[in-house]
Amino acid sequence: MKKTILFTLLAIFACLSNIQAQNTKEDARQEKKDAEKAYNELLYQQAKLAIDNKKFVLEADQVMFKYGNTAFVSSNTNFVGLDGDNAVVQVAFNIPASGPNGLGGITVDGKASNIKTKTDKKGNIILSMNVMGVGISAQINITLYNGSNSAMVDISPNFSSNRFRLSGKIIPLSQSTVFKGRSL
């Protein structure tokens, strides 16, 4: 009888210890999740402020072409930037040819006009603008996804159907690490 009671008490103690350990692991996971969510919200607010100030860079790590082909690219040489009403669009692929910008792609500068921002029902921020310059005449639409600094930009040239999409992160201009090639 004493052995049964002792065994039962030991089993209950072991179960309680196991539950406590599981709760601690769950608490740690939840704390990590909460910290990550708070960090992403901070990045979102920083990107939102940069868009409001018109001083940001979308550093792209992926390019999607007209028919759905995608390529992963370097974020410091593939970007769309806005500084006031001056816009830059640069794409550079990792190819042996240097291209017009010296990086294997093209860099175009232009003046941004008709800049409009709106927030959709999900809290995503959508910025649209026209960019005109020596080598560019395009409609650019940038979507900053709610809760992070992840974004996507659609670039639709006005005189051709060679549209493409970049996806990456929106960074304030002062914190950006992009390398700009030669402009057209």
Automatic annotation (TrEMBL):
Transmembrane segments: none
Species per Swiss-Prot/TrEMBL record: Coprobacter tertius
Keywords linked to the UniProt accession: Coiled coil, Signal
Coiled coil: 18-45
Signal peptide per UniProt: 1-21
Lineage: Bacteria, Pseudomonadati, Bacteroidota, Bacteroidia, Bacteroidales
Pfam families the record matches: DUF4251 (PF14059)
The protein's name in its UniProt record: DUF4251 domain-containing protein
InterPro entries the record matches: DUF4251
